[in-house]
Write a structure and sequence with these properties.
- The chain has one domain.
- The model has no long low-confidence stretch (mean pLDDT 90).
- The two termini are 33 Å apart.
- The chain contains four helices and no strands.
- Helix content is 79%, strand content 0%.
- With 129 residues, the chain is mainly alpha-helical.
Length: 129
């Protein structure tokens, strides 16, 4: 919710202060997607390791992966809200660049959603019955 409000409010704040309206670059989209893939691969490897042999993963490694999953889930949720909020702020704008800004924001939001889902899967993979 906080990310959504901040993302939605960045455009009016930038215009009020006379700043150039920010845009989401392709490097940000690539970075979010890359982090999502790393977290997803970590979730898959953790689940596969614990299915084979529960003792193959030390307690410290399991806790580290659990903390990584929790942190990435929170960051992914925040970024998801921020990118969706920024895309909502572009609705109804009569600027030529508003369409590409909204598209890049929605693509970044999809990457953030993937990061959040993979992080939750990583948390679940660390659960040992």
């Amino acid at each position: 919710m906080i990310g959504l409000l901040l993302g939605w409010g960045i455009r009016p704040l930038a215009l009020r202060l006379g700043w150039i309206e920010p845009s989401v670059s392709w490097s940000v989209i690539f970075l979010v997607g890359f982090v999502a893939l790393i977290v997803g691969a970590s979730a898959w490897l953790t689940r596969r390791t614990l299915r084979r042999d529960r003792l193959a993963l030390s307690a410290e490694q399991a806790v580290n992966r659990l903390v990584l999953g929790k942190a990435c889930a929170l960051v992914g949720a925040f970024f998801l809200g921020a990118f969706v909020g920024y895309a909502i702020a572009q609705l109804g704008v009569a600027d030529v660049a508003a369409g590409p800004r909204m598209l890049r924001s929605l693509v970044a939001a999809a990457g953030s959603a993937l990061m959040m889902v993979f992080a939750l899967l990583l948390e679940r993979a660390c659960r040992v019955p």
